[in-house]
Every structure is written in C-alpha cells, then in structure tokens.
C-alpha cells in the first residue's frame, strides 16, 4: 500500500470515528436547549457501545473483506444490526420498546452475529444468513400480529425497511460469492 493510499484510508477512518463521536454528542448538546431530550448516563453508555460496535463493524468490513461486494455485504449487515438494536431500544419496532415480541428482533441480531462468526463472514453462507434475516423480519411481524399481540398494529413499513437492508446485504454477499467462484 502506498503512503498516499494509507493517508487516505486514515483520513476516512478519522472522519468515520469523528462522525460517530459527533452523533454521540448531539443528545448532550440538545439537552442544553430543550427538556424534551433527557438522556441518562446509561443512555449515553448504550449509545456509545452501539456506535462503537458500528464503527468496529465497518472497520472489520474494510479490513477483512476480499472484494467490494463482500465489504458492502458486511457493512450493510452491521448497519442493519445497529439500526435494529437502536430503534428497537428507543421506541420498539412493534408496539413500544417494552413489548416482549421486540425481544425476537434482539435475538435475531445476536444469533446473526454468532452465526456470522461461525461462518467467518464467508459469502457462501452469509448470503443465506442475510436472506433468513430478511424473511425473519416478516415472520416476527406475523407472529406479533396473529399470536402474541392480536389486534395490535404491526408496522409493516418498518419491517420492510429492515428486510430491505438484510436483503441488500444478502445480494451483496451473493455477488461476492459469484466473484470468488469465477
């Protein structure tokens, strides 16, 4: 790697981690201007952990992937996991954050992380894992709508958004697999 490309990568790393720190600082700044934002120390700790995992996941994608589609697949998977955990903890994906059905979304992300490590992020298995997560979004919605919370509105648009992220990751891993095969 040349000196200029190393400097360019380091510049992107600094910008990325700086952006995550800025996101973490936003609620602290907002708390100075409005009582509507009222974060506790544990809120900041949770946000710092999630943002740190997001940054570490992107670093993993950049450093460990063999090709651009695999990098994209890992990055989308990390983003999907981050957004799932963040939104689920903040307001809940189905109903409020205290609805027990929302634990299924947490479980899906945790299982996906464990399975990803077992698969060593290899495209052949990761494409199927991401496709299963995409379908799992709707399965949890159906479970919530029919069995655990009948009569409760299921946010199908939100489920479709997350399914799209997981599906795009599956597509990127599929493309990465085809590049390896050729």
Task: Please describe the structure with a list of short key phrases separated by commas or semicolons.
182 residues, mainly alpha, 6 helices, 80% helix, 0% strand
SSE diagram, text form:
Layout: H1 3-31, H2 41-64, H3 68-90, H4 103-119, H5 123-148, H6 156-181
Helix pairs in contact: 1-2, 2-3, 3-6, 4-5, 5-6
Architecture overview:
The chain is mainly alpha-helical. The protein has a domain at 68-181. The protein contains six helices and no strands. Helix 1 (3-31) packs antiparallel against helix 2 and helix 4 runs antiparallel to helix 5. It is flat, with a radius of gyration of 18 Å. The two termini are 25 Å apart. The model has no long low-confidence stretch (mean pLDDT 89).
Nutshell version of this structure?
With 182 residues, the protein is mainly α. It has a domain at 68-181. Helix content is 80%, strand content 0%.
Main sheet record: none
| Radius of gyration over C-alpha positions, nearest whole angstrom | 18 Å
Pick out the low-confidence regions.
Answer: none
| Distinct helical segment count | 6
Q: Which structural class is indicated by helix and strand composition?
A: mainly alpha
What is the element string, with H for helices and E for strands? HHHHHH
Mean pLDDT equals 89
Q: What's the count of strands?
A: 0
Helix content: over 70%
Dominant shape: flat
Share of β-strand residues: under 5%
N- to C-terminal separation?
A: 25 Å
């Amino acid at each position: 790697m040349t000196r200029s490309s190393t400097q360019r990568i380091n510049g992107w790393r600094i910008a990325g981690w700086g952006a995550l720190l800025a996101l973490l600082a936003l609620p602290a700044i907002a708390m100075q201007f409005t009582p509507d934002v009222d974060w506790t120390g544990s809120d900041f700790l949770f946000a710092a952990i999630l943002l740190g995992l997001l940054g570490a996941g992107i670093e993993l994608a950049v450093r460990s992937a063999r090709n651009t589609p695999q990098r994209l697949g890992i990055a989308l998977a990390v983003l999907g996991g981050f957004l799932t955990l963040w939104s689920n903890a903040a307001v809940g994906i189905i109903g409020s954050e205290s609805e027990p059905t929302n634990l299924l979304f947490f479980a899906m992300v945790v299982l996906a992380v464990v399975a990803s490590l077992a698969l060593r992020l290899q495209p052949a298995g990761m494409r199927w894992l991401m496709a299963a997560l995409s379908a799992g979004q709707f399965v949890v919605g159906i479970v919530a709508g029919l069995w655990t919370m009948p009569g409760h509105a299921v946010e199908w648009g939100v489920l479709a958004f997350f399914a799209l992220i997981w599906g795009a990751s599956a597509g990127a891993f599929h493309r990465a697999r085809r590049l390896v095969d050729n």
